[in-house]
Amino acid sequence: KQAWRRYFSVFGHNYRVWRETRRLLKKTGPVDCILLPAVRIHHLMAWRLLCNAGLGKKFKRVIPFLLTSEAIYNESYTVFHFRKTSQLMKLVLSGFKKQVATGGVVLAGDSHITCKEYETLSGVPFRVFPSPGVGLQAANPINSDIEHREQNEVPHFVMLGVSFIDKGIDVLQKAILKLLKEDPLLPAKFVIQWATPTSGYDGNLVPISNELRNAPQVHLIEQVLDDAAYTKYMQRADFIVLAYRRKVYFNRLSGVAVEGACAGIPMIVTENTWLEWAVKEFGAGVTVRDGEADDLADKILLCIKETKRLRNEAMERKQVAREVNSSAQYLKCVWD
Questions:
Q1: pLDDT exceeds cutoff 60 at 139
Q2: pTM of the model
Q3: Which of 6, 7, 74, 86 has the most CB atoms within 10 Å of its CB?
């Protein structure tokens, strides 16, 4: 019964998308391109009908972005398959094949991994788009000038954003406590935003340790940051810690990673994820094994030892990151 309700909601939502889009296009008249920022099966069926009736007449091109994954991976994230429920998505996407071939439809994503998944599912090519928003943000207010970081007496490791368990904040806490137990005078500064209670996968709260709270090397931010405060902390960052859990971030883009690369800040990222690919393609930094606090502690020590080298590598690749994630590159993807 619940499954039928879900399918009914899918068809109902598609009908509303179809109806309201037709009304809008009657008001606007013909347009060159329509961008659909985050579509799901709840929208795509409507756009199949709209493209069949209006592509080349009411609009010249439509670009649906599929950002969520349908794939199910094995434990090592080397092989994936799809649930039976993905057959409807497969059917709808494959229906765009001729329109994709002529360039009227561009099926898009922001992660090359997710795009590969959908290509495997549908047999239709996808186009990977850059992230110009975070690229521009990093290029303008943060800029992470090398002078800001050279003022640091010790390397600054920064982790900002919502303190979800998915982002490995508990792993970072364990790694820091291990390092401080071994060396109470550890030459490092950790800036951690922990503004909301964090629940583990078992449903229990992950408390902030008193040892972490009282450590002189740790600066805890237990509040939401405005843009000015966020920029201030990022300007002083020698390293951004992105020890995100692979099961959530294997194929997902990270705006913070793009921002860090565009600002010339090296990163600590989880291996065998989109994050590692980004570091290799247009950033700099080191990788850490998924969910392993001991390995993260070792990589923090490596970063302390190799701060100057990693900083220089990130600064050298900053322009590459900005070009890859530029508005010009985005527009090229839209119109080519």
A1: no
A2: 0.88
A3: 86
